[in-house]
Write a structure and sequence with these properties.
With about 150 residues, this protein is an all-beta fold. It has one domain: Immunoglobulin-like, CATH 2.60.40. Helices cover about 5% and strands about 40% of the residues. Strands 1, 2, 3, 4, 5, 6, 7, 8 and 9 form a 9-stranded mixed sheet that branches. The longest helix has 4 residues.
């Protein structure tokens, strides 16, 4: 079953934001798969991975008091079997530190839901790429922002 572009819900995507390019909208091509949870807004994916895009392209984070880094939990949905690896590159300034920990294949299986914890050294516009065991990848661009009061 293919998802028609009219079936996809898309958020308001900023073309530019302070300090960087902001989030990029999904490409005009329709995805080749079906969102894993169709009633959740803003799913975006391909034949390898799906992610739930945050509203307005802004990914909220909290400061980890032990490391001083900005962290968030982020869900991925694997269409292809294998382990998930996540990398990131800052687009609006120097790329400093980024790290990701993902779910263990033994604990979560080699398909479907895979939770991740992503950690950045600084807020900004970041290109984030998830890769499944060399089978392919999905790249998104989000504005990483610290939650107010966090």
């Amino acid at each position: 079953m293919r998802v028609l572009s009219s079936q996809l819900r898309r958020g308001p995507w900023p073309r530019e934001t302070r300090g960087g390019p902001g989030a990029t909208p999904p490409p005009p091509l329709e995805p080749s798969g079906v969102p894993p949870v169709p009633y959740v807004k803003y799913w975006y994916g391909n034949d390898v991975l799906w992610v739930m895009l945050p509203q307005k392209g802004v990914l909220p984070t909290q400061c980890d008091p032990s490391s001083g880094r900005l962290v968030t939990k982020y869900p991925w949905w694997r269409i292809q079997p294998g382990a998930l690896q996540v990398t990131a590159e800052r687009l609006d300034g120097p790329t400093k530190e980024f790290s990701a920990s993902t779910g263990d294949v033994e604990a979560y299986g080699d398909l479907g839901f895979d939770p991740s914890e992503l950690a950045w050294s600084s807020p900004g516009c970041w290109r984030i790429t998830g890769t499944v065991s060399g089978r392919g990848s999905l790249t998104i661009t989000l504005l990483v922002a610290k939650l107010r009061g966090a």
